[in-house]
Amino acid sequence: MTEFVQPNLIPALPEIVMLVMTCLVLVVDLFLPQEKRGYSLFLAVATLVLTALTIIAVAPVDSISSFGGSFLLDQMAVTLKLAICVITILVFVYSRDYLTDHDIYKGEYYVLGLFAVLGMMIMISAHSFLLIYLGLELLSLSLYAMIAFNRKSLAASEAAMKYFVLGAMASGLLLYGISIFYGVTGTLNIDQFAQVVNDKMSENPIPLAFAMTFIVVGLSFKMGAVPFHMWLPDVYQGSPTSVTLFIGTAPKIAGFAMAMRLLVDGLGDLYADWSQMLIVLAVASMVIGNIIAIAQTNFKRMLAYSTISHVGFILLGILSGTATGYASAMFYTLTYAITASVAFGVLILLNRRGAEAENISDLSGLNDSNDCYADLLAIAMFSMAGLPPTVGFYAKLSVLQSVVQIDLVWLAVVAVLFSVIGLFYYLRIVRVMYFDKPLDREVTIKQALDVKILLSANGLSLLGLGIFPSGLMAYCVLAFS
Amino acid sequence: MIEAIVFYFFAVLSVTTATVVVTVRNPILAALFLVLTFFASAAIWMTLEAEFLAITLVLVYVGAVMVLFLFVVMMLDINIARMREGFSRVLPLGIVVAVIMLALMWSVVTSDIFSLEVMVKPAPRAADYSNTKALGGVLYTDYVFAFEVAAVILLVAIIAAISLTMRKRPQTRYQNPSDQMKVQKADRLRIVKMPSSGEES
């Protein structure tokens, strides 16, 4: 009889706090009368703040693993988890007025959002294939329900259905790849796995490459890289804007973490194989994303294609295979999530009761009616386009630098070329806001003070990080040193 | 020898019944054939000495999931003809993709890398070895985190299902157990004085 070994629970304390608090929110929300529903938001934000504090409290100097090595808390995990908590707080606060306006203010939005955050945190810290898969399923399941939870909207149901069916298939592919890995190496633990791969590589790499193909396909589906991007525009457009705001920001960070854990930590020895695949995916994403975005009239759809092109950039950083490349990809992911939260945050404020403002034409003349928000959206667009002095410029620069360092200059040239093409549709938004005639209908934006402060700070942080990127970059470099 | 016969019998059975599941027109029959597929898979697991998984498959999938599924199929009026629309239109493309995938996977899987010499069969365990005990040993130590996460996924599934389907409709009739418990004799029963049949005559 084997001895019962008590696993070390301390590294997983943030997840445990999160789960307990989320269950508390779930139960409290059930007994809150309708007029006091505002407390759900307060509790959800309190949960995230408490979790963030716990993450800081348990943050190790180097790295610490638990549960038989299947759980890893390292510098990357700490930084990414904190970023997810902060961004989710922004998302929750921005969504409040939208949800009340559309009569879909329900505690479930926050509860499912918190469970999605829990899933992302598990994905980030997972150091076994099993946990990565479980975290991913927890995230996906919460997102499916969040998309569909406005039952009156047919488009939302359609988006949820598409996401669900395609997401289930991608999970199946990922799981199939994992099962072959398990068959070949006999372990699910990424540390042991990497060792076995190292031994097997010299014998025969084909079974590993065979399984890796499925992993890369599943991964690129979840990240939304071309040619596995079909779900993204429909889901962005069909979901309630509050959910689009959520999907468009925090899960990108989790997707990056999943790619790092699977490809770099687990399959580092097969770098030569997967970097080739990522080159194809990255180039296709930048080409398709930027070109199709030009043709969009729907702002959410345009941002979806813009996301696809940004995923291409993140993949560029990962495929460079160097510590600076990983750090730049991490920096890119974090700053993209911050930028997207500004863009969607402004969009969500434009939504009025009964009327979804989601077409680009709805933004015309925004500068005349709400110059503050027009400025914020313009900063976000400049940052996505990669214009200095916004943070997007520095993020793109550092990714390109890492690609040039491994002598893939042609790849950097392609990336720059398609960024210039992308400039067109970002600047079109700015033109529509500043130079087009205002709409006939009165566009007044509700001026809730907390939203105003947070959104302004969020928007100005794009400038601040653009001028002083070294602080955040230092954390990204630290994660891979 | 006997092991090979058992394996091939159940392997052929599971592949055949799985094919029937997707080709048969009647959904009830499809569900019943799926039950048979599960039984055959359980038997194959048994030959792999994974008796806990085999029993769980029968208990959970056959005993609970498929019975529930049969209930749903019988209660809903599913229009099979409509579901099959467009099937023949996309079939050629589907076959082409499937054949290419199959050929590629075949070329990898049947090559020497997955041969029996490379993938050695593990030595059989002693007769008193308990698969269930071994699972229990790691489930609450190394895998306790994954185990708890799986439980959270189920919780989210419950929340999602309830929040997506529950709606308060005033005309819905439902029982109130509290009211039922508190009911008094006087609320339900009315004693009426009537002439008995004997007095009448």
Task: Kindly describe this structure.
The complex is a heterodimer of chains A (481) and B (201). Chain A is mostly helical and 481 residues long. Chain A has one domain. Chain A is built from 20 helices and two strands. Chain A has helices at 13-31, 38-58, 75-101, 107-125, 129-148, 154-185, 190-203, 206-223, 231-238, 241-247, 250-266, 271-294, 299-319, 323-350, 366-369, 371-385, 391-405, 409-435, 449-467, 470-479; strands at residues 64-66, 71-73. A two-stranded antiparallel sheet of chain A has the order 1-2. In chain A, a hairpin with a 4-residue loop joins strand 1 and strand 2. In chain A, helix 11 packs antiparallel against helix 14. The longest helix of chain A has 32 residues, at 154-185. Chain A starts with 12 loop residues before the first helix and ends with a helix. With 201 residues, chain B is mainly alpha-helical. Helices cover 70% and strands 0% of the residues of chain B. Chain B has ten helices and no strands. The termini of chain B are far apart. The A-B interface holds A 2, 4-7, 12, 19, 26, 66-68, 70-71, 106, 108, 111-112, 115, 118, 122, 128, 130-131, 134-135, 137-138, 141-142, 144-145, 148-149, 151, 183, 204, 206-207, 210 and B 105, 108, 111, 113-114, 118-119, 137, 140-146, 149-150, 152-153, 155-157, 159-160, 163-164, 167.
